[in-house]
Design goal:
The chain is α/β, with parallel strands linked by helices. The protein is built from eleven helices and ten strands. The chain has a five-stranded mixed beta sheet, with helices on both faces. Strand 6 and strand 7 form a beta hairpin. Helix 6 crosses helix 8. The radius of gyration is 20 Å and the shape is globular. Bound molecules: 5'-O-[(R)-(carboxyoxy)(hydroxy)phosphoryl]adenosine and zinc ion.
Length: 342
Amino acid sequence: MKILGIESSCDECSAAIIEDGKVLSHIIASQIPLHAKYGGVVPELASRAHIVDIVEVLRGAFKEAGVSPEQIDGVAVTQGPGLIGSLLVGLEAAKAFAYVRNIPLVGVHHTEGHLLAPLIDTASGMEKPTFPFMGLVVSGGHTNLIAVRGIGQYESIGRTLDDAAGECLDKVGKMLGLPYPGGVAIDKLSVGGDPQKYDFPRALPQHDNFDFSFSGLKTSVATQLRNIGHMPEGQDLADLCASALEAVVDSLARKTIRAAKKIHAKTIVVAGGVSANRRLRQRLADDCAREKLSLSIPPMKLCTDNAAMIAGLGQYRLKDLVESHAGFDAFNLQPRPSWNLV
Ligand code: KG4
Ligand code: ZN
């Protein structure tokens, strides 16, 4: 079964082809350079860029896989959550393709794609997680702790009450005059910094609270900057970055470990752009080793927004439809910008 996946929920335009769980091709056109000068994603520019990119991205996916459009059995597309204009581009491209080929199309949940990404066969040699596992989805748009008991069996254990972790790092980066996305710049600068130099707040520390809040950290960094009285440079800047990052990582790691224990999971899965962060990876690896939990973080290309995770999820959703030779009937598939998984 060959599945085409399409992802366009935010600022990455991506297409991938998967055959029986194996990635045949995977193309991502990132819009980071387009949005960098504004310090964040501009929705209108994002949707326009998706329109420009989508056909080339699809062509690239077929070329890389050595597969023709006639060989595709079903299409999966991100239906939400995300930016409505961006979602529409992927959705309409998916509809057009599936309609012309008269093959089934399913709309899938973006966060669910992130959660199940480690189940995709990437030939990386990484051990696949077993159910139940504790999923931490942590990116510019999401910070969720989700108990995964099987495909389609999810329970929300915690979520951010305000900013997502990546959003917080991006805003702190902007305050410090760093290039977009701030999370990436903070990761680099933190390497030489002292994470204990500034004692930034860890919100909602109670043992039985699994929610996150990062807006206080943002305010605290702003206050610290005012106290310093000038734009920090050199070691001062590295110390500020390392301390702010430590506050984010500390909250994420503590709550994730506690949440895994709460549901008696043996494995923690981390997905989303922030899982690229070196300090977060190190801290989770140390904590998991101490607590005898296994840690599964998909390869980088599957951590950030991508279509392989969408095709990967689509293959479960499409199996029955493909096997029964169902045709296209998804004319009314609409974007769901604020779709909650749980
Ligand atoms: O998953 P993603 O590509 O897009 C969504 O937001 O859905 O995640 C992007 C986020 C940004 O906030 C970016 O700053 C953060 O992931 N990020 C990082 C790193 N790489 C990306 N944050 C910290 N350290 C990194 N190395
Ligand atoms: Zn995402």
